[in-house]
């Protein structure tokens, strides 16, 4: 299989950079006239896959909203990932896991191993047990043409005290960007994007400029998952300001703003089209 960075670039060239989340919030299920139970979850996920697959570059199911129904919910998540694969749409499983040693190896196998029912094209991981603690996931992703997005500057306001903190000569968020750039350099190849990305919330305001992270971000060749568009307040215009010269690497990401157009599949598709038009000008 081609490296994830190459496959992502092709998908973005075809559909634009928008990433849409599948976040089955209880409130959204109710607004779709569904019960907040396993049948409602399945109906929600199936409609979202029908609306998004073949129309967006990458779809991001949020694991927690499936896990809350226990093993039945995980089965719906497995089916959702399988349906996206069947439709040829890239999946990015949002699990934000991070662990050590053999435990991290097991998480890596679960989300990035070829034989796992939960395998996705890429996964979100948390580096706060140490960037290198995620090594089993980096290695497995590279081996199977999959990707990893490592949390750098998240969209939630309470992240600031940890992620902006200065460690040695730079911020923690900056150290993550630099290390992800190292993974992409090790991967080699001449693709515009590497297979290793970062998560930087679209709501971080001037933090990238203030922490002097724009240049390292461009140098890293990391695709940037940027959640926060819509429900959390970011717009295409604010994304342009926030990411400056790195804006061409950004995958603007939204969940509730699009999902609230359901349950009609046609209305969901219209909402996707509108969001895609909004961010179309962000491409280089
Ligand atoms: O990794 C993520 O996807 C993520 C990182 C971050 O910094 N902020 C953030 O909101 N997210 C996820 O992105 C989605 C945002 O959903 P909306 O606010 O409804 O668009 C949720 O699934 C969040 O868990």
UniProtKB/TrEMBL annotation:
Question: What is this enzyme's class at the first EC digit?
Answer: lyase
Q: Which domain of life is it from?
A: Bacteria
Keywords of the record:
Decarboxylase, Lyase, Pyrimidine biosynthesis
Q: What reaction does this enzyme carry out catalytically?
A: orotidine 5'-phosphate + H(+) = UMP + CO2
Which segments constitute the Orotidine 5'-phosphate decarboxylase domain?
17-271
Which SMART domains does the record match to this protein? OMPdecase
Q: What Gene3D superfamilies is this protein classified in?
A: Aldolase class I
According to its UniProt entry, the protein's GO biological process terms are: 'de novo' pyrimidine nucleobase biosynthetic process; 'de novo' UMP biosynthetic process
MF terms (GO), sorted A to Z: orotidine-5'-phosphate decarboxylase activity
The pathway is:
Pyrimidine metabolism; UMP biosynthesis via de novo pathway; UMP from orotate: step 2/2
UniProt cross-references to InterPro entries, sorted A to Z: Aldolase_TIM, OMPdecase_type-2, OMPdeCOase_dom, RibuloseP-bd_barrel
Q: Where is the active site?
A: 96
Identify the EC number(s). 4.1.1.23
Would I find Lyase among this entry's keywords?
Answer: yes
Protein family membership = Belongs to the OMP decarboxylase family. Type 2 subfamily.
Question: What name goes with this protein?
Answer: Orotidine 5'-phosphate decarboxylase
Per the UniProt record, the source organism is Leekyejoonella antrihumi
